[in-house]
Amino acid sequence: MSYTEHEILMTRMNPRPVRFELNGDKICRLDSAANFVINTPEKPEGIEKIIRLFWDCAPAIRYEVVPFSRRSGAYQVEIGENTVSITAPDRDGVLNALKTLRQLAEEERGVLRFQAYELPCCTIEDEPAMTFRALHVCWFPENQQYQIERAIRYAAYCKYNYVVLETWGVFPFESAPFLCWQDKALDRKELKRIITEAKELGLTIIPQFNILGHASGSRENGGKHVAINRFPEYASLFEPDGWSFCLSNPETRKILSACVTEMYDFFGKPGFFHIGSDEARLLATCRTCRRASRKELVKDHFLHFHDLMAEQGARIMMWHDMLLDKEDPRWNGYIVCGSVKDGLTDLYKELPKDIVICDWQYGYPEGEDGAAPTWATSKFFKENGYDVLVSPCHNLKGFRSLAELAVNEPLMGVLETTWSELDTGLFTTITKGSGIIWSGGNAECLSPKIMDAWAPDDMCMMHHHIRQIENDMGIRDYYAAGRIMLQLPEKIHL
């Protein structure tokens, strides 16, 4: 049996819309003769620029003020032979509609060099299952700028509305230059451009800066330390092993406060700031810290940064793992890094409840007799008054189950993690993850192959989408093009 036209066109859209119906076999040509009608409660800004970016045309655009009470990001589209009508509750909804239409559009046929894109006459209705859809991206010294920018743009293309950007020793702090590898420092002007253009595409970038563990600014297994390797005179700001910050040193708080404030301002003062705080090993072990109450040191530390951001109108986000006891049988099968000896496992009772808890769980912890996971850690934090973001990674079964949990509980949303995987795995993760997050795991809105580790047809379409992003960025270099730098190993033995 051959694919129907409807089935073929559905494979082009990611995430897949809730409803898609073809209205005959006519097309709408996207050129200067086309008409766009944008129906929203308030006129959205910058739509002409996005249309020009997506289709290199300047159609007539008419804005109508129309009430539309749906969840933020929802949209309806009606395409006739000469008119594209979009109805949405806000700018995010209009942008989501345009992103879907970009995926659906096809270059005109039967020519050597096409002049315009074409859309099928159709009706589309769509709405996200949750309003907080985030991707966590790490910027390591080894990464090239185009890699990070492409990932951020692709996240926006797939309708994520937040990226948490964790810079690993590469943010060019003016307040603390020793916390950045100077030969790997990001270009401030270029980073500001990326943040601004992401916002134009409907995506807010939230900065992350670790204020507890991961103080080395480097991966745990590498042994590098952004400060002590080059400036050993700053060692007193850290615990003796260098992995965590020294909380009893008042200079530590001064430096970290300056860094957090500088980064928050640089990123345009978004509504959130991620303070990390996972895997804080060998915490409070120096001569001064170990004579104090570890719990009180950490509590005071968290409260300081909570209040620092609250004064700016922002909420802090943090990883969950140090707040639970890994020996507690309630958390068997779940990722938990704290212990009673740390003195932090009751700290959740005393922290402000407007802190967003990011619960990173990377598996599928089945219950007895193969029962589905209960996701006890996420439910625990919700029951104790916190907003919770579930944070899955590669396990698609666990990912989908967590997305369903986020909808059914309900929780605040999803923060998908990627860590060091910024080549072959990242785009697959974004592609599949976006569909799962947008739909809340609803099977009716997912590709039939969403759970397959290898789906060649979906991969071909993903590469098409990535090339569209690369064209936006002006990427023409062989090594920068595509999701991998080299098709073959550098050394091939024949």
Count of the separate structural domains = 2
The tally of strands reads 15
CATH topology of the largest domain: TIM Barrel
SS-based class: alpha/beta
- CATH class of the largest domain equals Alpha Beta
Intertermini distance: 43 Å
Q: Name the CATH superfamily classification of the largest domain.
A: Glycosidases
Helix content: 25-40%
Features:
single chain, about 500 residues, alpha/beta, TIM Barrel, seven-stranded mixed β-sheet, 15 strands, about 20% strand
Topology, pairings included?
Blueprint: H1 5-10, E1 19-30, E2 35-40, H2 47-55, E3 60-65, E4 75-79, E5 83-87, H3 91-104, E6 106-107, E7 117-126, E8 132-139, H4 145-157, E9 162-167, H5 188-200, E10 204-208, H6 250-266, E11 272-274, H7 294-310, E12 315-319, E13 356-360, H8 376-383, E14 387-391, H9 396-408, E15 413-417, H10 424-439, H11 456-473
Parallel strand pairs: 2-3, 2-5, 8-9, 8-15, 9-10, 11-12, 12-13, 13-14, 14-15
Antiparallel strand pairs: 1-7, 4-5, 4-7, 6-7
Helix pairs in contact: 2-3, 4-11, 6-7, 9-10
